[in-house]
Amino acid sequence: MTVARKRRISHAALLGHAAILVFGLVAPFVFPNYTFQIAMLWIMILFALTWDIMGGQMGYNSLGNILFFGAGMYISAVVQIGLVYDVAAYTSAFGGVKVDFTTAQYFTGIALGIVAAAIFCTLIAVIFGSMVFGLRGPYFAIGTLGVALAAGELVGGWDYVGGGGGISMPVYPGEPESRSLFFYSLCFVSAITTFGFLKWLYSGRFQTTINAIRDDEEKAEAMGIRTTRYKVVAWSIAAFFLGISGAIFGNMAGFIEPLEVAFPTVTFGIFMVVMSLLGGKGTLWGPVLGATLFHVIKEVTWTYLLGWQWVALGAIIIVNVVFFQQGILGWAQDKWPEFFGIVVDDKLSAKGAAAREAAE
């Protein structure tokens, strides 16, 4: 690759980083009526990035990552409420008890809740990872899905955290405008932090190792790679950031219900997979692109095609699977490899073209 081409690629990446930062900083002021929707965009980007750690980079298609999102939500709620009031008494009253959180109590609680969600979700990933990583292929996908579904049902029957009736989160001590900006900032910072951390992580040996597991796990083990350790670490990283997003979303929603809010396997759980596939799994920018396009289309169809939104989203999935199996970014890399710094051997490409002509 020539120096000039490397510079063009680095300049394009730098421009992309700058565009995201500028948009993230000015969006709530330029589009104040869509602050919540744009905040959800950052959560969707975080979803896609964290799913791609396992599904794209390592080849382990997890359908249970929503487990950490919901767990982070409930862990944060227990920490925030437990600092001021007895959690069991708070939930058993089902709205009959009003607890006034001071400004200091609220912000201390949410800070500790986010930290606790990240830490405990990581521990959950380590514990369950040692169990489910004995499975491979579709068995792993089904096993993780079963864990997520079971978690929602178990929490729904746990009276300590409100059971199926849910649990109300502490009320933000401020005006609605400041509340919107506060949670928007948390969503934006969490997504940017996830992206920055993964960019750093993928620049070293870690990406090469998990890609080797994806390509041929048996050969990777024969080379001395401790595959189970890397799989648990990768899932734990995803759990860490998903726990943070769950804690933020639970407070932003204001109310936690086990099946529709905390563990929405058939919506958010599937969206994670679709967004990564749409943009191009196994890449850093693919999940970002896929999440952005998917979220915009989802919001438009939910607004203007109400009643047909699931048909529209299903059509997107079909088109993606049939025509763009590598995702949009993968398709673009095949079509314009030089732009992405991919060197194509002229002799091999000529042979490929001749073979295609002979087949036709």
Largest sheet: 2 strands, antiparallel
Structural class: mainly alpha
For the record, the CATH class is Mainly Alpha
**How many strand elements?**
2
Low-confidence stretches: none
Q: Gap between N and C termini, in Å?
A: 33 Å
Count of DSSP-assigned helices: 16
How do the strands line up in the largest sheet? 1-2
Secondary structure layout:
Layout lengths: L2 H28 L4 H21 L10 H17 L4 H6 L10 H30 L5 H19 L10 E2 L7 H27 L2 H11 L1 H6 L4 H27 L1 E2 L1 H5 L2 H15 L5 H20 L4 H15 L3 H9 L10 H14 L1
Description of the structure:
With 360 residues, the protein is mostly helical. It has a single domain, classed as ABC transporter involved in vitamin B12 uptake, BtuC (Orthogonal Bundle). The chain is built from 16 helices and two strands. 38% of the residues are buried.
Short description:
The protein has 360 residues and is an all-alpha fold. It has helices at 3-30, 35-55, 66-82, 87-92, 103-132, 138-156, 176-202, 205-215, 217-222, 227-253, 258-262, 265-279, 285-304, 309-323, 327-335, 346-359, and strands at residues 167-168, 255-256. A two-stranded antiparallel ribbon has the order 1-2.
Describe this protein with a few key phrases:
mainly alpha; ABC transporter involved in vitamin B12 uptake, BtuC; two-stranded antiparallel ribbon; 16 helices; 75% helix; globular
